[in-house]
Amino acid sequence: MTSTHMGAAPTLNAGARISEIDMLRGLVIVLMALDHVRDYFITGGGFSINPLDPEQTTPWLYATRWITHLCAPTFVFLSGVSAYLQFARGKATPNLSLFLFTRGLWLIVLELTLISFGWSFGFPYLLLMQVIWAIGWSMIGLAALVWLPRMVVLVIGVAIIAGHNLLDPISAQQLGGVAGQLWTFLHDGGIIFAGEQPIGLAAYPILPWLGIAAFGYGAGALFVQPPAQRDRTLLLLGLAMLALFVVMRWFNGYGDPLFATGPEAIARNWHDQPTLMAQIMVFLDVQKYPPSLQFVLVTSGVVFVLWPLLTRLRGPVASLLTTFGAVPFFFYLLHIYLIHLLAMAANAAVGRDISGFFNYLINGFTQPELIANTGFSLPWVYVAWIVVLTLLYPLCRYWQQLKARRRDWWLSYL
Fold first, then answer.
1. 318-338 residue pLDDT tens
2. Does residue 338 sit in helix, strand or coil?
3. Nearest C-alpha neighbor of 146 from the set 80, 200, 51
4. Which residues contact 404 (CB under 8 A, 6 or more apart)?
5. Which strand ranges, in their side-by-side order, compose the sheet holding 190-194?
């Protein structure tokens, strides 16, 4: 044990997995797949309306989109937890740091190549920098942070989550040039340009997500505590986060740029909505891109409150979630291609033009008329979601069993 992890003696057997973590990861993977099926299968495509805008959406569509907000912060938080658990299993700090650095680079490369192409199916494709990008950079950040005491990493994570909205007044447009581009990657998110040509979308800027990963690493010791103690602590933490969210949201104060000063923010004030349903929708509509403090409080708060219930789940549903959660990246890579192909096949089967599904992302932003006449109603989105999960389960089950049988180094990168 290194001195940088004072009081955090390894307590897990090498190779041991915590099934409850796999189950939680599997739950958010299943929800993530629903969101991505909606992107490709909903009438007019996922870019046609804002499903969280009460003037455009329905309660069912709103809930379908909002529930998937739980996914990204949970993925990134658990990436930090998993890094700590590798230390708890006895991996030396130099080896852990090297693994996090190399795996982070690997995820970034795959996000910019196979994954971005899978979203688009066309050349030149838009470089889409989403959750795999965020996890990759978070792992690179953790490769440096793991040399520090765990509690210091926890403080750094909480400080970034709580404080990064103080940087909101600084914009990439103000900085301009190379500094502006770097700020887009680091904090603001947005379109990435090569000269005057847009080439990518940094949907998940690095700094806020690194804070969540560092928080996960710092909180990792909770997950090697006795189950009753762990569950009680996470429940209380979740309730505290939700209470803080409600207070901050009630006063439209710090922690979410949607409620900064200005006419657009005033128009989005939940107090001013005409109906109770609209008020609830706007109250819960917190900024994800980048994730605001209030976004992290409500989404992570919900997940932590659900944790004790999830750990008591048994039977086929628990087995299914555990399988998906044990092979998250394998699922992620396959599901993008499968959903995209199924959407093309389903629309072609009913006689629609599917040319807009090639270079889908660019068309969604610049030529939405190419996909305006495609898609299906929301009930069919749920049918397609179940089909996707059904097709992916045996493949994920096979990959889970392969990883359980073998210890090849390359399997840890997939």
1. 999 999 999 999 999 999 999
2. helix
3. 80
4. none
5. 127-129, 197-202, 190-194
